[in-house]
Design goal:
With 272 residues, this protein is α+β, with helices and mostly antiparallel strands. Helix content is 26%, strand content 27%. It has one domain: Nitrilase/N-carbamoyl-D-aminoacid amidohydrolase. The protein is built from 6 helices and 17 strands. Strands 1, 2, 3, 4, 5, 6 and 17 form a 7-stranded mixed β-sheet that branches. A 6-stranded mixed β-sheet has the order 9-10-11-12-15-16, covered by helices on one side. The protein has a two-stranded antiparallel ribbon with strand order 7-8. It comes from Melaminivora suipulveris.
Length: 272
């Protein structure tokens, strides 16, 4: 199965971001991808952290969700809508939600980011808990590929990558592919992005697909980019080295997955 990780440099303009996303999704479809994943905050990176509150949609309705459903139907793609803000339990918070749409346009999975990023180094300060309400449940879905293989896919978002227990839970449930739409900062991405993605692939003997924000945004934030696909042995199959919008395309070989798990049955040797 071909899968595409789509990299963006999202702005505060939702319509402009959706046009950029549509162009990348069309590129993925032309390249033969069955699955295309957009990055975290693909529909909007505001000038201020509270800007996301004004863009929040009710789950099941809204222009961004309509966009994703329509693109999935028209392009016959499985689409992971990175994340978008969905209404939470209180008006001063949103859920940072990753939605999955099947090729018939149905939303088949919703994952609300569980771990909220917090970082301060003197020059940069981030605290997602000020505007985001965390989720509390791991989420997986089943993808039936054109070749007849059934893939179990585990969802996660950005900062989740630092919490290995989430991915082990996905592995226990039989996941073959782990998705990590992200907006890693330049500082933390430069230090940790690749090593964490490869570690999650190796320890869970699973493919990892990580679409990312990359570049300098209107609010001055720099994101690391380097959207990536990694195989179950930890080999980087494809990576985008440049910033800015683009696509990383990789072949996820089910036979390679089966061989790796047969040769090194580490998942069967767990004692905790």
């Amino acid at each position: 199965m071909k899968a595409a990780a789509l990299q963006m440099t999202s702005s505060p303009s939702v319509p402009a971001n959706l046009r950029q996303a549509r162009a990348l999704l069309e590129q993925a479809a032309r390249a033969g991808a069955e699955l295309a994943a957009l990055p975290e905050y693909f529909s909007g990176m505001g000038l201020h952290e509270r800007d996301k509150l004004a863009c929040a949609e009710t789950f099941g309705d809204g222009p961004v969700q309509q966009f994703l459903a329509q693109a999935a139907r028209e392009l016959r793609l499985w689409i992971v809508g990175g994340t978008l803000p969905l209404a939470a339990g209180t008006p001063d918070r949103v859920r940072n939600s990753s939605l999955v749409f099947a090729p018939d346009g149905r939303c088949v999975a919703r994952y609300d980011k569980m771990h909220l990023f917090c970082f301060e180094n003197g020059a940069e300060q981030f605290d997602e808990a000020r505007t985001i309400e965390p989720g509390d449940q791991p989420v997986r879905f089943t993808l039936d590929a054109a070749d007849g293989r059934r893939w179990q896919v585990g969802l996660s978002v950005c900062y989740d990558l630092r919490f290995a227990e989430l991915y082990r839970e996905h592995a226990r449930a039989g996941c073959d592919l782990l998705l990590v739409p992200s907006a890693f900062t330049h500082t933390t991405g430069q230090a940790h992005w690749e090593v964490l993605l490869r570690a999650r692939a190796i320890e869970n003997l699973a493919f990892v697909l990580a679409p990312a924000q990359g570049g300098t945004h209107d609010n001055g934030r720099r994101t690391w980019g380097h959207s990536m696909a990694v195989d179950p042995w930890g080999q980087v199959l494809a990576q985008r080295d440049a910033g800015g919008p683009g696509m990383v395309l990789a072949e996820l070989d089910g036979a390679r997955l089966d061989t790796a798990r047969r040769q090194l049955p580490a998942l069967e040797h767990r004692v905790l």
